[in-house]
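Example record

One chain of 322 residues, shown exactly as stored in the release files.
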Amino acid sequence: MSDKPKLRVILCSPRGFCAGVTRAIDVVEMALKLHGAPVYVRHEIVHNKYVVDSLKAKGAIFIKELDEAPAGNAPVIFSAHGVPKSVPAEAERRHLNAIDATCPLVTKVHREAQAHFKRGRHILLIGHAGHPEVVGTIGQLPAGAITLVGTREEVETLELPAGRELAFVTQTTLSVDDTRDVIVALKAKFPEIQEPPVEDICYATTNRQEAVKAAAGQVDAFIVVGAANSSNSQRLREVAEREGCRISLLVPSVEALDFARLEGVASVAVSAGASAPEILVEQILDGLAERYSLEVETLTTREESMFFPLPRNLREPAPATP
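Predicted structure tokens for this chain:
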């Protein structure tokens, strides 16, 4: 008989890597395979230290801006979050071997914004100031073409010229519930505003939040594995808290988990942000297993099969048929 206290663990599914993150990591690894080390990556390819460190070990060099990349044929990769138009323009000016790992769902938002701009509409971007995805989206258009709003209160204080045609787009990694509140406020204030033909919130963001909602009411504590600067991971923790989970923790790794916070807890749910690899979840479970006798179950709310192909300049040619 184990003298460890029992702990019921609900593993949320889906969790962890989304198709866009998988593609971005594959872009770096394929560039290393085809071109050899080093390859340069502007900003974190995804918001996860474990992923970044593992790619560094394989020969990736992470830089803040393009002026840190030397001239030559070494690939320079743009992160999954997307970049302002000025970045590829600078890469072209310097004749750098640029490879774009922007998530296709982020690119979709860029194209929506550009289409609205061409139709003469002013664009409202629902998002968080300073997030790389927001910086990249705003940077698709001339200064002043996009206004950033993050809350219902910000919408209510907006002052825009009367008669101006408007449209909105959304950062892909926000809370579905928070976004809904802002959209309701936008439509109430600007009834003629154009909305995206398909919701901009990423399928993976929505699916992970649905799983967290389903599990949060069944447990005493919630552990979200993810980085503090990962928007979608932060939203998962907030969703668990909003659903009434009294202990809701966002941790980058098992080393950062304060087990004292779980004192007296009989049940815990575990999920992971879209940029967190499964090995970090496994390490959390190992850490719990050292202290508790675990009863693990999986709660699956949706199956995922999304796949994004690599950029054309990284696809290996198909083998010739004999």
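Notes: The CA atoms of residues 30 and 302 lie 30 Å apart.
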